[in-house]
Design goal:
The complex is a heterodimer of chains A (290) and B (219). Chain A has ten helices and 14 strands. By secondary structure, chain A is an alpha/beta fold. Chain A has a single domain, classed as Alpha-Beta Barrel (TIM Barrel), CATH 3.20.20. Chain A is globular and about 55 Å long. The chains are: A alpha/beta (290), B alpha/beta (219).
Chain lengths: 290, 219
């Protein structure tokens, strides 16, 4: 729909290209797997999981990626240090898709990137995530691992405006550069429905000013919506999931962490629809410039 | 109460409901200049506004951002009222005092923040000791403020043992506090096992804590 005056940076992460002008390339879609309380996790402590079902889900996302042309990644969430190694091994053997190393625990994420280095996967993984309040030892673990890409999450206490999100990223950038991150992916932080607009506004500002790839975890807006299903019915959850994932895409997001991987069947086609429309406008060069 | 004062309280309530820190500060100053009691300004203006926001959040009509922004607006206005409260040596009769934090090893703050906002909205004094908080810090703060309740959040299965450590530390201490746990990793079964009360979310946390401090009905 528009072009930025600032040159947009493009990164290649494990063969997936990310970033650029709106409409230039399809949005990268990241599905989350092995998240807390997901039915395929059998034992969070040991990392035992339903391999057959995990394989089916990863292949399902790949199938939609192939159909739509939207590149995909996996957000691999590990509950424990033992588990994250098992999950990384499984994912890296099953697929060539790049993947994010994620966990609510910093120790687990650090163990994950150490392991990625041990097995030579450090160029294929993305650390999820660093925040302005991340402690020095987290940056040190990343530096030691040789991992080049990380999600930079614009979250800190009291973050109630888009401007605060932009400032959070600007505070973080020199620190991540010091830690060896050369391919930062900016996540402008969605926690609920009102925050989508702030995240999108911050995304526009950051792309306009810094030209770095931007996106967000839009699905959080639905998982934190109290009483959505009760008030509006089960179908509302699905339609709202699509709506929140689409909003940043309409505004030119380079990537979306769209939530549980099984939602790929709703998300990929809807993102594809928007990307296809924008691709045409890009081709006939009728975009606005700002 | 003078009509003029009623208008000021309504303005103050609306400032909170509109998440407007500047208006909340300006109106709090106006209320003090009009000679109003700082305690009444707080209870009949600010807390009422936050309570309405909290009720709409519980119904799913408002969201986390609204709740936190309303709490921030209230905090800004409280900075104006606090010197006046201290000068008058008036103490608010809160429903209870709650020390809240995320346990050692766990850095997650959002869920705890929501619970804090909801408790403040319902008339509790809340002392948030932050994240990655060791058991000793919960105990120290609870003793310092004379807490009725300690609330501990844990998002990770790996940090659940810290909730148990805190239960043991409370049992060893001379504190007469009730202990409640929550967070994504905690369950009712786990809470029972460690001798704690449990709340699944911010809305049930308010209900359980009200019950624990002996508040009946809507309080």
């Amino acid at each position: 729909m528009w072009r930025y005056r600032v040159k947009q940076k493009e990164f290649d992460i494990g063969g997936v290209k990310i970033g650029g002008m709106p409409g230039e390339r399809p949005t990268v879609l990241v599905g989350t797997i092995f998240y807390h309380k997901e039915r395929i996790m059998v034992n969070e402590q040991t990392g035992e999981f339903d391999r057959e079902e995990a394989e089916r889900l990863i292949n399902l996302q790949q199938e939609f990626s192939d159909k739509t042309g939207n590149p995909c990644m996996l957000d691999v969430v590990g509950p424990t240090e033992v588990a994250i190694k098992k999950l990384i091994s499984f994912v890296s053997e099953l697929t060539e898709t790049p993947f994010l190393i994620d966990s609510p625990s910093v120790k687990v994420k650090s163990a994950g990137v150490r392991y990625a280095k041990e097995v030579g996967l450090e160029k294929r993984v993305v650390y999820n995530s660093l925040m302005p309040e991340s402690k020095p030892e987290e940056f040190e673990a990343i530096k030691a691992s040789g991992v080049e890409s990380s999600i930079l999450l614009a979250y800190k206490r009291g973050i109630m405006t888009s401007e605060a999100r932009v400032n959070a990223i600007k505070t973080l950038l020199p620190k991540v550069e010091e830690a060896g991150i050369t391919k930062p992916l900016l996540d402008t932080f969605v926690i609920d429905i009102p925050s989508i607009s702030m995240a999108c506004r911050a995304m526009l500002d950051l792309k306009r000013e810094l030209g770095l790839p931007c996106g967000c975890g839009a699905h959080n807006a639905i998982s934190t919506w109290v009483g959505l299903k009760e008030r509006m019915g089960a179908q509302a959850v699905k339609s709202c999931k699509v709506a929140v994932n689409i909003a940043p895409v309409v505004l030119g997001a380079d990537f979306i962490l769209y939530g549980p991987i099984e939602d790929c069947k709703y998300v990929f086609p809807s993102v594809y629809a928007i990307n296809t429309s924008y691709k045409y406008l890009n081709k006939i060069k009728e975009q606005l410039e700002f | 109460m003078k009509d003029e004062n009623k208008v000021i309280l309504e303005e103050l309530k609306n400032a909170i409901k509109n998440f407007d820190s500047d208006a909340a500060v300006k109106t709090a100053k106006k209320a003090l200049e009009a000679g109003m009691d700082p305690l009444k300004i707080m209870e009949n203006g600010l807390v009422k506004g936050l309570r309405e926001v909290g009720d709409l959040f519980a119904k799913g009509e408002l969201f986390i951002t609204h709740l936190v922004a309303a709490a921030e607006a209230m905090k800004s206005a409280m900075e104006i009222l606090e010197p006046a409260l201290l000068a008058k040596k008036t103490e608010r009769k809160a429903l209870g005092k709650v020390v809240i934090g995320t346990v050692a090893g766990d850095i997650h703050s959002i869920g705890k923040r929501i619970v804090s906002c909801m408790l403040i909205a319902h008339g509790f004094d809340v002392y948030d000791i932050g994240e990655d908080a060791p058991a000793e810090l919960f105990i120290k703060k609870a003793r310092e403020v004379g807490a009725d309740v300690i609330g501990a959040s844990a998002l990770l299965t790996t940090t659940l043992p810290a909730q148990k450590d805190l239960a043991e530390a409370i049992a060893r201490s001379d504190l007469k506090v009730k202990y409640i746990v929550g967070g994504a990793a905690a369950t009712e079964e786990w809470a029972k096992k460690i001798g704690a009360f449990y709340a699944e979310d911010s809305i049930s946390a308010v209900e359980v804590i009200k019950r624990l401090v002996g508040v009946k009905g809507e309080g």
